[in-house]
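Response to reviewer comment R2.3. The reviewers asked that we include at least one raw input/output pair. We reproduce the pair for FecR family protein here without editing.
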Amino acid sequence: MRFKEERFITLLKAYMNEQISESEFEELVNYIQQADTAQLNEQLLDLFDKAWQQANQQLPIKLDAERVLHGIMTSPQLNTQARRKKPKVWLIAASIAALVCLATLLVRQYTPLPLQAAKEKLLTQEEDTLTSDRREVMLTLSDGHQIPVNALSEGVQTFQSGTHVKRDQNQLIYTEDQDTKAHPSPALHTITTPIGMDYKLTLPDGTRVQLNAGSSLTFPVAFGRQERKVELQGEAYFDVAKHPNQAFLVQAKGTDIHVLGTAFNVSAYQEDPYVVTTLLTGSLKVQSKILRPGQQALSNETGHPIVIREVDPDEIMAWARGYFVFDQDDIKQVMNTLARWYDIEVVYEGNLKGKTFGGTLSRYTDFRQLLHAIEQTGSVKFTITGRRVTVSP
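Raw output as returned:
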């Protein structure tokens, strides 16, 4: 018989809310028994996508169904006897549980919002949430004076060094006039982003930068004629303005990155073992190694050889579009990334070796919902106490 989509979704909601009756569960199981496993998984994902398309939204949480299923089916919480009795029913039911929890629109946890609206909501939540007490983006002048960026009035500001800076909504734009080009100032400015907030700026040469959370960029207010040098801590995306006679140099944790005009991403957080440089377009040199678009270099301060590998640039740049993307990453690396954004302390208990997570998550999803979604993969469990999150097998 034909199983209508509306009825399917109704049963899924009841199942996940633990409000499904015995007869409804039998109805769901009957369909599961008759369906092809791969086809049903594909149908589930298609239903979720359609629901979000109707709301003109992008799916906030996406996971690889097979990986989710593997995580659940290898979880010790599953009743092994029940698995033996009805292997297919339990296999698909586990898949349904994971997929429905992760597509939280269909259950109860997520109200769809455009990314910008979701971001604004996240930044104005009640004080008892994990995302409260967020600090401001700060501008540090060459004399050490610090100014909250939001304290600058919109329009052009002129500092003592003769620097012209324009605050335009959520970004700063530096410009050079003929005098500063002829007599460049040695003054340095630093933009620092707090935990849980990124920021955009345009450097004096026209290079566009987007700083990720917990990062800082130090740069001259007017570049010299020979070289454009900046210093990065944390992570940033660069779209470098082309000036053939002026090389652009990024210094990050002992790694020198040389470019002329290109787009690339650098991640150089202090707690990470490597400086990770990903080239999107053009070409650049990391120390002595030349990268091609789609390649990533891993370097560090210990003098070990630079490792170059092929990557998906879209995944690397997901943070700049408002998403986390994990590709079966170690759970500790996942939690490090989340901690930078949500301003939390992470504690680990038990043996977490081999515990991984893969999926795409909106950076503006409520943190408790996000943790709940990760838990549904069966990989780890979370205990939240204030701003402390304990991770256990």
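The longest helix spans residues 37-54. The first strand starts at residue 61 and ends at 62. Further pairs are available on request from the corresponding author.
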